[in-house]
Amino acid sequence: MPRCGMQGSMIRHRLDPRLDGLPPGRRIYAVGDVHGYLERLQRIHGAIRDDLQARPCADAVVVHLGDYIDRGPDSAGVIALLLAGPPAPGVAVVNLCGNHESLLLQALDDGGPGAVDDWLRNGGLETLRSWGIPSRSPARDWASRLPPGHLAFLRSLDLHWQSGAALFVHAGVRPGVTLQRQTPDDMLWIREDFLRWRGTMLPDQPGTLIVHGHTPAPKPELRSNRLGLDTGAGRGGPLTCAVLEGTEAAFLQA
């Protein structure tokens, strides 16, 4: 898989001038949906290290936008990598919850056939295999067979994180609703109502860019009010990382 650095050939895109911008001196690396593809995440983390070595930044943050598990071959390895620490020394890390982590937690907490089948149909079988759990084992036993640190990680994930004019969330937000009144269901699952909206997303924060994953597209989608970073890593596409700094965005892919 290719790996890009920010030097030379990396194309920078200007954010909409109506946005308020990021805090001065901060650089944010936002990583889209991984879906169990450990090698691609390792390559993205390597590209982040290369970029920081070439262009040091004292205030760098890596934001993973959720959907670490399901479909790909090594969901357990992805979680282990995220638990191992930041991609580079001194870098802060924010790990957000995706709808696939939510489906798994519902299956673990509910244990009923509906919740379990919902998760398994969405790639859960591959995730069970990555933990060495037989798919035919009772669902009520799964939680006890997960590495305790992995389960604690899944339960610790946040729904959103904000820095300056950028709000990071897995799926998006309900347009016209303030941030405080957004529901977990919308932040984890929303699609068309959010994707079609062309105006201000949050009435209480009109200069905000929503940075999200969840909905696959052939390439990153930079709009005046949102930036979509799910480029289909779970379905054969690349894994994408946006590099946000000041009023510009650029992209790494693996």
Give a verbal description of the structure.
The structure is a single chain. A 6-stranded mixed beta sheet has the order 1-11-10-2-3-4. A 5-stranded mixed beta sheet has the order 5-6-7-9-8, with no helix packed on it. It has helices at 38-54, 75-83, 99-110, 113-130, 142-145, 148-156, 184-189, 192-195, and strands at residues 13-14, 26-31, 59-64, 92-95, 160-163, 166-169, 209-212, 221-222, 226-228, 240-245, 248-253. The protein is of the alpha/beta class and 254 residues long. It has one domain (25-253): Purple Acid Phosphatase, chain A, domain 2 (4-Layer Sandwich).
Secondary structure tally: strands: 11
Number of domains: 1
Order of the strands making up the biggest sheet: 1-11-10-2-3-4
Shape: globular
Summing up helix and strand content along with how strands pair, one would put the structural category as alpha/beta
Beta-strand content bin: 15-25%
Helicity range = 25-40%
CATH topology: Purple Acid Phosphatase, chain A, domain 2
Count of runs of 4 or more consecutive helical residues: 8
CATH superfamily: Metallo-dependent phosphatases
Compute the separation of the termini in Å. 5 Å
Q: What is the helix/strand order?
A: EEHEHEHHHHEEHHEEEEE
- The CATH class: Alpha Beta
Short description:
Helices cover 31% and strands 19% of the residues.
Which terms summarize this structure?
5-stranded mixed β-sheet, globular, 254 residues, Purple Acid Phosphatase, chain A, domain 2, 31% helix, 8 helices, alpha/beta, 19% strand
